[in-house]
Amino acid sequence: MLTPVTDEDGAPFWEYAAQGELRVQSCADCGELRFPPRPCCPHCHSFASEWRPMSGRGRIWSYVLPHPPLLPEYAAQAPYNAVIVELAEAPRIRLVGNVVAAPDAPLNSVDPSRLRIGAPVRVSFAEIDGVVVPRWLLERG
Amino acid sequence: MLKDATAIVGIGQTAFAKQLPETEKTLACRAILAALDDAGIDPSEVDGFASYTMEETDEVEVAKAIGAGDVTFFSKVGFGGGGSCATVGHLAAAVATGQASVGVAWRSRKRGSGPRPWKNTAVQLPTPGQWTRPFGLLRPADEIGMLARRYMHEYGATRDHLFNVALACRNRANQNPAAIMYERPLTREMYMTSRWISEPLCLFDNCLETDGALACVIVSAERARDCRQKPVYVHSAAQGLPAQHHGMVNYWNDDPLSGPAWTAARHLWKQADFGPQDVDVAQIYDAFTPLVPLSLEGYGFCERGEGAAFTEGGALEIGGRLPLNTGGGGLSEAYVHGFNLINEGVKQLRGTSTAQVPDAATCLVTAGEGVPTSAILLRS
Question: Chain B residue closest to A14 (CA)?
Fold first, then answer.
């Protein structure tokens, strides 16, 4: 499986994920949330930022079911789901992820017929090849 | 002013195939020399070049191989297929402002026999892959599939609408002997039963993977009158990078479904003497079928959310409201990052297309939607 190739701007997201926390970068001056993380605030141009905890609740904004040709470890699970989750606190911050039956379950562990745009989900975390990544569970499991 | 100050006077191309034996560099040289021959201009007169990224052959290699003279303008536009029309725009600006007199834009590509770009997982994307790739959002088809499903959900678009796009392109390819799909008709049953690539997108929603090269030659309108071919004027040109845009994964702004087309379109029409209702034929970038309804909205052929419905009733066919991709497009002629759409636009305005729109005098050509993009308006 591919693990995140992080950069300086994105590293805190993964460090918080490793502690089981979903946090999003926000401006330390005007408070505006921004994603993906970047050096300065596009609204007030401040370079001061902080990482604000999210509730971990959201809704499916869209999803795809990839089929081969795919990289081998993904092809082995295909068709699986990749979803975009809009966060409850900030609907225009949308995280790409996977809906799974349990935190450590494979990417194809939820029947695709149960996926719906608008379906409520909540975050969990799974360790993949030594890196902790967010996963999403259907609220009406 | 850019308007009608320059013209495309030569076009050239190689064969298109799943696999061609020659190198990308050789194919580039063949297409460029063919375009110059078409224009009746000696290669030693070329002093301007424009290309776009994901092209292996650079200006130095091309210039020395074709025997160009002193080159005084060269530019390379970013974001792959989003840059196709910008090459024409840059050369038009360079020629109009006296920085060059004979400009060549080209695209050479070995996508059919070469590696698939998404297999290189270390490549740095416009938005870092850390936010998408670990979750199995690996390929352009997956990234655009996300927008496609959301679009279908919001506006009631169906797979039949996407089929309308695929069919129009295939029908034109069936008229074009140079098209890869020349002898391969498409039916609704074939489309609906084909294998998935990334649901909701099936095989026929995806462009071809092609080896081939194309080029065009741009000179001043004054010089164009003395060239071998009927001039096709560059009426308007624009690039588009919208506020808070994120490339193929444009998921993180207020309105992910209004992409770069909207930005390019505003500037394109502002400079033009005519509007969308006056376009006789369109060459719209079609790496994936959903890009067409999104672009129809962005470029103002219909209102927001109406792009799918616009495709109904044969609207994109010859004789329809807006004949589309009349050489077959990226879906059915060849996928050469959209450069075949530029040359097809020129053919339409010369009156030499294999699927000629009667008396076509205006053509919109667009580059890749879903990435920082570009577009041109051509007129005869």
Answer: B130
What is the model's pLDDT at position B55?
A: 81
- Here the tokens at position A137 are 């569970």
For residue A5, tell me if it sits in a domain: no
Per-residue confidence band for B126, with pLDDT thresholds at 50, 70 and 90? low
- CATH label of the domain that carries residue B109: 3.40.47.10
Q: Is residue B44 part of a domain?
A: yes
Per-residue pLDDT tens digits for A23-72: 999 999 999 999 999 999 999 999 999 999 999 999 999 999 999 999 99
State pLDDT tens for residues B161-170. 999 999 999 9
Task: Give me the domain span that covers residue B96.
Answer: 6-114+208-379
Total Cβ atoms within 10 A of residue B124: 9
Q: Is residue B357 part of a domain?
A: yes
Give, rounded to a whole angstrom, the gap between the first and last alpha carbons of chain A: 26
* Percentage of residues in chain A having pLDDT higher than 90: 93
Q: Evaluate whether residue A52 is within a structural domain.
A: yes
Strands B232-240 and B281-283: what pairing? Answer: unpaired
Angle at B235 between CA B232 and CA B237, to 5 degrees: 115
Q: What is the domain extent for residue A39? A: 11-138
Number of domains in chain A: 1
> Is A94 among the domain residues?
yes
Cut 0.90: pTM above it: yes
- Among A62, A67, A93, the residue with its CB nearest the CB of B197 is A67
Q: Over 90: is that where the pLDDT of B248 sits?
A: no
Domain count, chain B: 1
Q: Does A20 map to a domain?
A: yes
Q: Does B65 touch chain A (CB under 8 A)?
A: no
B249-288 pLDDT, tens digit per residue, is 999 989 999 999 999 999 999 999 999 999 999 999 999 9
User: If contacts are CB pairs under 8 Å, which of residues 36-95 in chain A contact chain B?
Assistant: 36, 42, 61-67, 69-71, 74, 77, 79-80, 82, 84, 92-95
Which of A61, A82, A131 is opposite residue B136, by nearest beta carbon? A82
Examine the residue annotation and report whether B335 is marked as an active-site residue of this protein.
yes
Separation between Cα atoms, residue B67 and residue B64, nearest integer Å? 5
Task: Classify residue B77: in a domain, yes or no.
Answer: yes
Cα Rg of chain B (Å, integer): 19
Contact A96 B132 (CB under 8 A): yes
Residue A23 CB neighbour total at 10 angstroms = 16
Determine contact, residues B33/B40, Cβ cutoff 8 Å: no
Smallest Cα distance from A39 to chain B, Å: 14
Q: Residues of B numbered 249-308 whose beta carbons fall under 8 angstroms of chain A's beta carbons: which are they?
A: 249, 251-254, 256
